[in-house]
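User: For a benchmark we're assembling, each entry needs the component sequences followed by a predicted structure for the full assembly. Here are entry 17's components. Please fill in the structure.
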Amino acid sequence: MKIIDIITTCLRNLTKRKMRTILTVSGVLIGTSAVIVMFSLGIGMNIQITKMLEEWADLTMIRVDTWRWHDGDNDVAPPDLTDEMIRSFKDIKHVRSATPFYRNIRSGEQVAVYTADGWLIEWGQFIGVYMDELENFGYTLKEGRFKQAGDPPTTVLFGPETGAYLYNFLDDEWANAERDWDTWEIISMPIENFFAEELRIIPLTMTANEWGWFDRDYSVIGSKTAPNMEYDEELNLIGIIDAPPNDWEAREGIFIDMEFLALMIKAYNELNAENQMPEFDGIYNEARVRVDDMNNVPAVEAELKAMGFNAWSFNEMREQMTQQVRTIQLLLAAVAAVSLFVAAMNITNTMIMAIIERTKEIGIMKVLGCDISKIRLMFLGEAAAIGFLGGVAGIVLSYGISLIINNFLGQFFMDMFNYGNMGEEKISLSVIPPYLAFLSLAGATLIGMVAGLYPANRSVKISALSAIAHE
Amino acid sequence: MGAVIAVKNLIKIYKVGSDKVVALNDVTFSIEEGEICCILGTSGSGKSTLLNMLAGLEKPTRGEILIDGQRIERMNEKRITKFRQRNIGFVFQSYNLLHGITALENVAMPLTFRGIKKKKREKIAFMMLAMVGLAKRVRHKPTQMSGGQQQRVGIARAFAARPKIVFADEPTGNLDTKTTIEVMELMVTLSRKNNRTLVLVTHDKDIAAYADRIIQLRDGEIISDERINFKKERVLS
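Assistant: Structure for entry 17:
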């Protein structure tokens, strides 16, 4: 007996008792769509969480530092964060890029960047990095370009908010960026085009104690009257990078090659004996590591911690939140699975009925030489077909329910929990990825087959003799 | 011509509670290829039991059944099913057609089990139905047919897969006299034309008259075994 003949027989038998088939299929439909919708809500929630965190934080970045809590638990000093060490981070599996993130100088107190017109831009700090690694590290550009071979060592990149608050020491005037106060987004910067400006570094004479927001004594900088004003270097701005809101150091920073930064510190310290910057001795206080995928972050983080470093990432928070969602999801799915279980029993019941009804038919087929394995296959196929049809209908229904949830209930829930309108974007509370649909279909078919196992075996055991005598 | 069916010392004992009922008691006979053989007996004579065992639907308590040289009582269910599929056709008293499908599909069914493609098996089935005079009824379902027509479908089905042996169990039990004659002539003609062995089980002596040979059973034993050669010419003429 050919497969096509078995399938034809299955379908014929299913269509012969339409009402019964429809009812049994409906059971599977309800079960499948319940499971799919429950899972889709969990998936939707996870996507929302990830999206929310992504907007706000960088989920594939790990911050590495050597600062230690003295909890007595682990008092072993961490290894030094040297160039060699940072480059070795790249050998860790799933690490795409690593760079130092040296922020040991508070440029606001000791060095300033200013324009020829007298605008001070030094609120942002110098960040000593590998300039040639930034692109690979995954920073994106808002404007300009990354550092290329041949660029001078004085090449710098700004963060998106570098220069958002300016003071002009020549005119004693303040200028701030204009913001949208709802989203905190910058609408316009006080200086529209930094690239057109001549940017210079200049040491400040004041110590931290002397310096303050309202100190009118800024004028000393411009006047160059102090004895240590000899250090004067022009910076070469080539681009403005973008960074997520939680990466405020980068948003307000001035990225510069560590090599140059070290020289600058050295030169400054030689000129200012009484206001020394911490000298760079080849050991960084912070580095950053980029992981290829956020799912690999925990493993890399663990490895860095095992090396003795502190490692921080927002992935931990995401993990905790997704874990919670998963728990809720499993709970909901378990409830939904009950209906699927009932559907499975329904299939078994239907198939037993069908076999009792068709006892004579089975007997005739056996007498006429139908292979018993084919008879089993016929009934299994019928049960599987019920599962499959229920699965298909369930998927269609689930997409419908999902659409309704997302279009009508989504906003309702958001309002209810007072999330407000998070941007223009439509909120997808329920997400059905293709794999979920596919797995559900396979699952429903499998459940049909399992439910049909007992009846199918029963059909095989029917004696041909008694079956044909059956009236 | 060799024996297509050979039965040796066949014994069948049923256990009914603690009692033992001997249905067949040491039956031995053989049937030649192409023979039309009638097993005649009253109800309870063991004739149906014998037929069931010849077809491999029941296992004997003791004894041998050789069909086409093969010991079918030793085969497992899977093999015996395959064996039936290849070698045996059936005509039943109550026709045993499937009601959900057409006459054509019913006749094609044994061919389906053999794995013959739809187009080919339906062609064969159509020819068979034409042969039994139902060419215009191929798309009818059994419920739309008279008893005689249904039995003719049954006959077409039994011969469709070209089996070596056709077993017929009271094939005319549910038919009137006129139809009985039609059906019997049809079966005998088909058997003769194709040189098939036909084993007929009946209690009706008139039916037995169509056979070349009559084996009479009573209480599980053969009481007579006679060949009636002149009948052959009559049917053929």
